[in-house]
Amino acid sequence: MSNYEIAKREDYSDVTFLLEVRHPMMARAARPGQFVVVMLSEHGERVPLTIADFDRERGTITLVIQAVGKTTRQMQQECRVGASLYSLVGPMGIPTPVSHARKVICVGGGLGVAPVYPQARALKENGACVIGVIGFRSKDLVFWEDRFRAICDELILCSDDGSVGLHGRVTAGIEEALKKHPDVDEVIAIGPPIMMKSCVETTRPHKIKTMVSLNPIMVDGTGMCGGCRVKVGNEVRFACVDGPDFDGHLVDFDDLMVRLRRHGKEERRALERWEKGCRMQQSINAAVAASR
User: Fold this and answer.
1) Given this model, what pLDDT does residue 105 score?
2) Domain ranges for the chain
């Protein structure tokens, strides 16, 4: 039996949580921009998750997960310190090349804050001036602000409801950064597809190179299934082996978002079946406890 031990867990909100998983070999090999494919149990779903951080000395990789579907909610419930993942494959995908840009804006929206962090850190270590723009729906959902302040030359924190930082989405943060820094060489944006599309349209008039990290449906992670195909310019690319990073100005985001909704009914059914099973098990446990 595999034993990828969970060494640390942090909960950031009702749905967002961090896992540090012990895997020394993977920690040595991991690079910014790469991802892993996780299986919680032997017959479980294969879930692609971006590597949010890695610690070569401790031999761990960090995953930040949002519990939105059946498997991620099950992970939220079962993945505690001392527990183990059944399978952990990676690092996969092409590592993000460390740009030689002198000034870069690194944008993270919601869960995208985690995977953009190692890219921002690598750029800073390479001598770039790094401007961070991170956005959340509200103050209660903010995480890793301290990490970004430690590596960024400037940080713009945004919130949709205005409860913290700049009132507005991350595009407002990009616009504010560009007013102050018209000499920005590159923008890196990671988050929900609609957010990345908005970032791309914000930078397009300025003709600033803008890289995005795509999250299409993925099964095997090796380019064999074709599930993660995306339209980039006039070509069909596979996010698992050609990406996940692409030139945002060439990505067909409308096609990507349609593909992400393709299995919505099946995903809802799987979640409903799992939740029903959980309720039944809770009833059984309660009955057993009452009979003692």
Assistant:
1) 95
2) 4-92, 96-213, 216-281
5 Cβ contact list (under 8 Å, min separation 6): 21, 22, 82, 83, 84
DSSP state, 32? T
Q: What's this model's pTM, rounded to 2 decimal places?
A: 0.82
Q: Greatest CA separation found in the chain?
A: 71
Residue 255's CB is within 10 A of a number of other CB atoms, namely 14
Was domain 4-92 assigned CATH 2.40.30.10? Answer: yes
21 vs 6: CA distance, rounded Å: 5
Strands 209-213 and 229-232, by their bridges, are unpaired
Q: How far apart are CA 278 and CA 211, in angstroms?
A: 41
* pLDDT tens for each residue of 199-245: 999 999 999 999 998 887 777 667 677 777 888 888 888 877 887 88
pLDDT tens digits, one per residue of 151-179: 999 999 999 888 888 898 999 999 999 99
Three-class SS state of 216 = coil
CATH class of 96-213: alpha beta
19 forms beta bridges with 9, 63
Is the four-CA dihedral 45, 194, 173, 183 of positive or negative sign? positive
For the chain, give the number of residues. Answer: 292
Of 123, 77, 75, nearest to 99 (Cα)?
A: 123
Distance of CA 259 to the CA centre of its chain: 18
Q: Is 150 helix (H, G, I), strand (E, B) or coil?
A: helix
